């Protein structure tokens, strides 16, 4: 494969201005224009946020997703057509790690309630036994890749007792015990926080539902920074309504933007964030690093990193 023209698809504007990435890659060998669907003609490759059928029509050889998740790309078609897909895993440990810990800190230290009260100029005190500290609380991280390890490392630094769920069951740094997915319910049963950090796959769709909420402690919080459909959302709403769990910090949803009539907006102990756990002003620089490395690898005839298909 030769990359002479690498388009920055205008859909990346959902995350950062495409021109930032173009400028950050101005020293790379290929020409790097910002392109829309009808300007892909001369491109060999594209860096994108969204998937578009125009990528196949333009016969691109390589597509780079600026997200770690690749659940909306037609992997089988890419495979058949010999299109390479790379993703942006490996860059979200700090951003999403801090975000997940921020959600947990908010629940423990009650920050979200004070923000809400401030909006109505209300000096309102929590019950004496409502606030708690993360120190010594157990966190179960489901999925111990980039995100999961980023969360585990930061939670460990705050004195939390961190356990995890991983397909191999092998130990990872910053976890005191690692379970396999078969033992998911046991793993979540005595955790104060359960953080989801798995990709959305056939195996993980609906991974957390009524039975897991039943297994969780009544004072437990769910943190989902993975993908909405990893959680059976109706069953989450039922668990929150029936006080089977204490609350949830949710960055991702079955449908995004979260519909106006979703009951999730209304729970006091639910924090809704707009799929921005990974957002940071340097995001485009991290993407530029990944793309530049793969351009070099392609030029040298080496295997690309973060290759999905
Ligand atoms: P990664 O590939 O580094 O890690 C994913 C880990 O999950 C891997 O270790 C994998 O083995 C493990 N896994 C897969 N199936 C599993 C299962 N059934 N049980 C337990 N573990 C399982 O990817 P990452 O960068 O950590 O990202 C993970 C996912 O998080 C992405 O696919 C994406 O959907 C989501 N994500 C969300 C945001 C956000 O803004 N909220 C940002 C980045 C990533």
Automatic annotation (TrEMBL):
Keyword line: NAD, Oxidoreductase
InterPro entries documented for this protein: D-isomer_2_OHA_DH_cat_dom, D-isomer_DH_NAD-bd, Dhydh_Halo, NAD(P)-bd_dom_sf
Gene Ontology molecular function: NAD binding; oxidoreductase activity, acting on the CH-OH group of donors, NAD or NADP as acceptor
Lineage top rank: taxon: Archaea
Residue ranges annotated for the D-isomer specific 2-hydroxyacid dehydrogenase NAD-binding domain, each copy included: 101-277
Record-linked Gene3D superfamilies: NAD(P)-binding Rossmann-like Domain (3.40.50.720)
UniProt entry tagged with the keyword Oxidoreductase: yes
Residue ranges of domain D-isomer specific 2-hydroxyacid dehydrogenase catalytic in the record: 39-308
UniProt cross-references to NCBIfam families, sorted A to Z: Dhydh_Halo (NF041369)
Family under the similarity heading: Belongs to the D-isomer specific 2-hydroxyacid dehydrogenase family.
Record's protein name: D-2-hydroxyacid dehydrogenase
Organism: Halorussus limi
């Amino acid at each position: 494969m030769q990359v002479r023209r690498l388009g920055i698809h205008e859909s990346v504007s959902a995350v950062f201005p495409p021109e930032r990435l173009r400028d950050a890659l101005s020293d790379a060998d290929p020409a790097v224009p910002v392109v829309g669907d009808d300007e892909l003609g001369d491109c060999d490759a594209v860096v994108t946020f969204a998937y578009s059928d125009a990528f196949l029509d333009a016969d691109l050889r390589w597509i780079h997703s600026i997200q770690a998740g690749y659940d909306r790309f037609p992997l089988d078609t890419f495979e058949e057509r010999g299109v390479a897909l790379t993703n942006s895993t490996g860059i979200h440990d700090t951003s999403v790690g801090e975000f997940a810990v921020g959600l947990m800190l908010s629940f423990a230290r009650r920050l979200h309630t004070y923000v809400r009260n401030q909006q109505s100029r209300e000096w309102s005190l929590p019950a004496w036994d409502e606030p708690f500290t993360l120190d010594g609380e157990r966190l179960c991280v489901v999925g111990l890749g980039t995100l999961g390890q980023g969360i585990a490392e930061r939670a460990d630094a705050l004195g939390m007792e961190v356990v995890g769920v991983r397909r191999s069951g092998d130990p990872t740094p910053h976890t005191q015990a690692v379970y396999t997915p078969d033992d998911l319910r046991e793993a979540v049963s005595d955790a104060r926080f359960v953080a989801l950090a798995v990709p959305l796959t056939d195996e993980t769709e609906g991974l957390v539902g009524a039975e897991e909420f039943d297994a969780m402690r009544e004072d437990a919080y769910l943190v989902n920074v993975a993908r909405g459909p990893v959680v059976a959302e109706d069953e989450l709403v039922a668990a929150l309504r029936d006080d089977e769990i204490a609350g949830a910090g949710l960055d991702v949803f079955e449908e995004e933007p979260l519909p106006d009539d979703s009951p999730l907006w209304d729970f006091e102990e639910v924090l809704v964030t707009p799929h921005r756990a990974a957002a940071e002003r340097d995001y485009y620089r991290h993407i530029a690093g990944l793309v530049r490395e793969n351009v070099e690898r392609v030029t040298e005839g080496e295997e690309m990193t973060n290759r999905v298909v």
